[in-house]
């Protein structure tokens, strides 16, 4: 295992979205494997998960709340600090990143994460000490860097 990491909202959403096909299957595997690793979840990702799956009608509100609560019990979590919000505001104002992406990266960095598993940012990019790992290879499998991170190779 390459160190502490976090999962972005899209991975959490795919893990409960059974109509997402191969992405659902792979996200379930990623989340399952993450429970055996040093994975921390940001409170931002858990909150966004609830908002997305209920707004899109992917799962009923009670089920979404239960899943979010389960993840809060399963994984260590971290909320955004004033410093991470300041940093995200600076990144967003400069045009280098969206506010929410910058906040995810800043919060993950504060948690000591070396990687974020997400499909929303460029695979392999480094933001400070945090690497972005895109989970889905073109073939539909888990990308090699994510496999290594999860101890699958």
Structure at a glance:
The chain is of the alpha/beta class.
SSE diagram, text form:
Blueprint (H helix, E strand, L loop, with lengths): L4 E3 L1 H8 L5 H13 L6 E2 H13 L5 H14 L2 E2 L3 H13 L4 H12 L4 E3 L8 E2 L2 E4 L10 H6 L4
Parallel strand pairs: 1-4, 2-3, 4-6
Antiparallel strand pairs: 5-6
Helix pairs in contact: 1-2, 1-3, 3-4, 5-6
Keywords for this entry:
four-stranded mixed beta sheet; single chain; two-stranded parallel sheet; alpha/beta; 7 helices; Rossmann fold; globular; 153 residues
CATH class: Alpha Beta
Total DSSP E strands: 6
Unreliable stretches covering 5 or more consecutive residues: none
Number of helices: 7
Beta-strand content estimate:
5-15%
**Number of spatially distinct domains:** 1
Question: What general outline do the C-alpha atoms trace?
Answer: globular
**Helix content bin:** 40-55%
Largest sheet: 4 strands, mixed
What is the fold-level CATH name, i.e. the topology? Rossmann fold
**CATH architectural group:** 3-Layer(aba) Sandwich
Radius of gyration, in Å, reads 15 Å
């Amino acid at each position: 295992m390459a160190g502490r990491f976090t999962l972005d909202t899209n991975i959490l959403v795919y893990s409960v979205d059974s109509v997402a096909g191969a992405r659902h299957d792979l996200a379930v595997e990623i989340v399952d494997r993450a429970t055996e690793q040093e994975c921390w979840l940001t409170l931002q990702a858990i909150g966004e998960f609830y908002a997305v799956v209920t707004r899109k009608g992917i799962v009923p509100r009670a089920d979404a709340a239960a899943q979010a609560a389960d993840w809060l019990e399963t994984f260590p979590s971290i909320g955004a600090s004033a410093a991470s919000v300041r940093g995200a505001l600076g990144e967003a104002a400069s045009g280098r990143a969206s506010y929410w992406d910058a906040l995810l990266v800043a919060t993950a960095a504060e948690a000591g994460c070396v990687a974020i598993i997400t499909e929303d940012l460029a695979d392999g990019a480094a933001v400070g000490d945090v690497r972005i790992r895109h989970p889905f290879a073109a073939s539909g499998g888990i990308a090699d860097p994510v496999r290594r991170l999860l101890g699958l190779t």
